[in-house]
Design goal:
The protein is mainly alpha-helical and about 300 residues long. The protein contains twelve helices and five strands.
Amino acid sequence: MKGNGHIIRHTTIYSSSDSVPELTPEMELKLIQMWLHGKSVASRRAYLTDVHHFLDFSQKRLDNIDLADIQNWDTFLATKYAPSSRKRKLAAVKSLFSFAHQNKILADNPGISLATPKTKDAIAEKILTEDEWLRLLNAEPNRQHQLMLQLLYESRARVSEFCSLKWKDLREKADGSALVTLFGKGSKTRKVTITPHLWQALKATKTEETKGNDPLFFNLRHQAYSTVQVWRIVKKAGERVGIYGVSPHWIRHTGATHQLLNGSPIHLQQQELGHAGLDITSRYLHILPGEYGAKYSKIKLPNH
C-alpha cells in the first residue's frame, strides 16, 4: 500500500508472541499507514494532520500514550478550536488507538474511556431559503461561476468530488437531463441527475477541442479548480448578497433540503449524498418544517 510517499511492505508490525513489542518509529509509521488504508485522499490528509498534531503535542510515541495525555490534548483543543474541529481531531486519534488495539499492535486503548464531545447540530444554520439561494445565484456576474454554483446545488457534491469532475463523468439521458458520476469517500462512486436546463447550459460551454478527460470547469491557467478556489468563489457569492460564511457544504445542505421539500424520498437522498447511514440523512428532517415552509418550487438557472 502506498501512503504519503511511503510503501508498506507485506510484513507484520509485530511478531506472533504473547507480548506486544515496543514501537519503533518505523513501526509507528506503518501502523498509521495501515489505519489510513482505504480512506479517501481528503480524509487521509485530514486524519494524518490530526494525528501529527497530537503526537507533536504529547511528545511521546503511541505506545507510551495514556489517558491523561489525550485528556491534556483535549483541554488544549477546547481553548484553540471550534467544537466541531475539536470533535473531529479527537475522533481521529481515538480511531487510531482503537485500530491499533483491535489488531493487537498496542496492548491498551487509552482513548476508549474518553467521550467524544457533543456538538450543536448546526445544519439548520447552513441551509439557505429559496429566496436566499435565488438571490445568491442571480447576483453572480461570472457565468462560469454561476454554473459551478448551480451544479454544486443540484449534484449536492462534496467540494473534493466537484473539483475532480471531468466531462466524461457526465452522460446525457433520454429525457434531456444528465447523469453525473461522483467519486466520493473511500473510492466509492455514486450517480446523481441534474436538470436538462443545467445540462444544456453546461454543454454550451464546450468547444470542438473539449475532450472527455478535460476538467468540467477550469481556471485561468486552464487547470481544474482547487477546493480552495471553489470555497472562495462560493464565499464571495454569499457575501455579495449579504450572507456571510457560505461554503460549498452549505450549498450541499441546501440542495438536499430543497429536494426533500420537493418530495424526494429520503432513501434516495441518502444514496445521492453518499451518506453511510440513513441516520445521517435523517438529520435534515428535523429542520424541514417552520421557516422554510412546506414546499419549495423547482429552482431553475437564470438566463444571462
